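dumping this here so i dont lose it
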C-alpha cells in the first residue's frame, strides 16, 4: 500500500513536471510521518524513501530511537519551541519552520555547543489565516538579514503552507508569494544566504507547488492515508 502510494505520487510529480517543463530530479519528496508509526516509516524505507519529516520533537526522537537507521534524513516541519532545539541539534537534516530571530539564536547557541551548523528554511506566512505560523512576507527580508549573521545557522531557502481548502488552485497565490519573497531576498544579495530550496505543497496541493517551483514537497496523507489524530 505505502509502496504503491509512493509510486503513484512519483508518477504524479512526473506528470506535473511534464506540464511545466521541469525535471523531476529537481523535486525532493519529504514524507511527513507525524502520527504514523515507526513500522509504517519502515515500509516506506523499504520502498526507497529516506527523507521523513516530523512536527513534534518527542515523537521524532522516539521514532528515531525505534528505527535506528542512519540512512534516514530527519526533517523538522512543525512549530519548533526554542527549548526543544537541544533535542534535535545533533542530527536534524533540515528545519523547515524558522520564523523568529530568537529561535535562530537558540539554534546558533546549540550549534556552537555541539560544533555543528544547521540548515534551515524560513517559514513565511502567505495566507489570510491567522492560526498559522511564519514570518509575514514584508518582514522576511529583515529577519533573514538578521539571521544571516549567525554563523551556525545556514539559510537554505523558504517554506510555506497554503490555505486549508479543497481546491488546490487556492494555494497558487500563496506559492507565488513565496517565490516573490525569494526574488526579493536574492535581489538583496545577502551574504551566506541561499534561496536554493522552496518547500511548498502538501497532499492536496503538491502539483500546484511543483508548477510554481517547489524543490521540496511535504506529503503525509498521500503516502500513509488519512491521519486519525493530529
Ligand atoms: C502534516 C503536514 C504536512 C503533510 O500534510 P498532508 O496533507 O498529510 O500531506 C506537510 N507540511 C506540514 C508543515 C505539516 O504539518
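and the seq i came up w/
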Amino acid at each position: 500500500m505505502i509502496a504503491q502510494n509512493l509510486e503513484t505520487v512519483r508518477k504524479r510529480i512526473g506528470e506535473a513536471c511534464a506540464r511545466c517543463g521541469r525535471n523531476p530530479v529537481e523535486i525532493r519528496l519529504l514524507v511527513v510521518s507525524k502520527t504514523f508509526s515507526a513500522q509504517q516509516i519502515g515500509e516506506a524505507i523499504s520502498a526507497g524513501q529516506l527523507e521523513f519529516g516530523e512536527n513534534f520533537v518527542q515523537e521524532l526522537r522516539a521514532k528515531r530511537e525505534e528505527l535506528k537507521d542512519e540512512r534516514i534524513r530527519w526533517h523538522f516541519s512543525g512549530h519548533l519551541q526554542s527549548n526543544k532545539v537541544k533535542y534535535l541539534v545533533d542530527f536534524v537534516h533540515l528545519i523547515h519552520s524558522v520564523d523568529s530571530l530568537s529561535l535562530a539564536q537558540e539554534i546558533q547557541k546549540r550549534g556552537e555547543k555541539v560544533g555543528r551548523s544547521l540548515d534551515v528554511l524560513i517559514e513565511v506566512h502567505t495566507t489570510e489565516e491567522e492560526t498559522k505560523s511564519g514570518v509575514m512576507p514584508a518582514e522576511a527580508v529583515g529577519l533573514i538579514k538578521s539571521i544571516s549573521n549567525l554563523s551556525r545557522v545556514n539559510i537554505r531557502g523558504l517554506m510555506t503552507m497554503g490555505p486549508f481548502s479543497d481546491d488546490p488552485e487556492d494555494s497558487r497565490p500563496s506559492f507565488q508569494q513565496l517565490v516573490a519573497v525569494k526574488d526579493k531576498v536574492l535581489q538583496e544579495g545577502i551574504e551566506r544566504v541561499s534561496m536554493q530550496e522552496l518547500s511548498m505543497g502538501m497532499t492536496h496541493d503538491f502539483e500546484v507547488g511543483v508548477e510554481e517551483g517547489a524543490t521540496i514537497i511535504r506529503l503525509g496523507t498521500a503516502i500513509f492515508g488519512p491521519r486519525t489524530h493530529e
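The CA atoms of residues 86 and 123 lie 20 Å apart.
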